[in-house]
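S1.2 Input.
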Amino acid sequence: MPLRITRTRALALAVVVTAGIAALSGCAGASSDSASESGYVTDGKLTIGTAEPAYYPWVIDDKPESGEGFESAVAYAVAGQLGFADSDVVWVRSTFDEAIAPGPKDFDFNLQQFSITDERKQAVDFSSPYFETTQTVITIASSPAAGATSIADLKKFSIGAQTGTTSLTALEEVIDPDSQAQVFNSNDDAKLALQNGTVDAIVVDLPTAFYLTGAELDGGKIIGQLPQAEGTTGDQFGLVLAKDSALTASVSEAVDALREDGTLDELATKWLGSEDTAPVLK
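S1.3 Output.
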């Protein structure tokens, strides 16, 4: 009889232990689900994606964790709006195409000059825009236009732009050069004309200006940014999130708050529109 009681008790104990394990497992699962439902890749951290490598002036010295460079600074400003300390920000790298491809993401949001388009919205979410591109005049050091510092200075030079673009509209309407604007089928053709001395300067959007002067033109120089031509807008850059992310609304609210309090303009002036990067021409 004692043996039967012992076995019964042992069986009862086993049932209790098994039930306890199941309950604990259920709790763990609930906790995991709760974290994933928050929308963040890692609970308590903000995971931000950018390019590999990330270029000046968007990120300085390919070190986004420094907060130096326009997009790095914007990322930390958004993090602050979302309630994260700088120490809670985690950086990951991705290619441009990986970030905007359909499917799960290893980042909460990604920024590397993504223009907001309807086509891309089919695969990913975008925040409200944190930057709108401007049109920019570039040249090379050997060009007679290299010393220009104002729109008036540019009028006497031969200047080109790609056909059918906002760049050409800005050239014709904002600069209104004394001679007819030179029109090219592509930015590559315009760049070659600049290199060959066929034109003294060309107009491209700001991201293209940074790329051409930094990577493709020998002695490339940014003369400056132009005001928007009347009735035109530039490409708008947004933070990329996974499609239907639970974070899209809050991230957009954070960007909106930074726009409304002037932070985005201040950061753009500091990193993109300063005298040693791309001054705004008058």
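S1.4 Remarks. Residues 1-35 have pLDDT under 50 and may be disordered.
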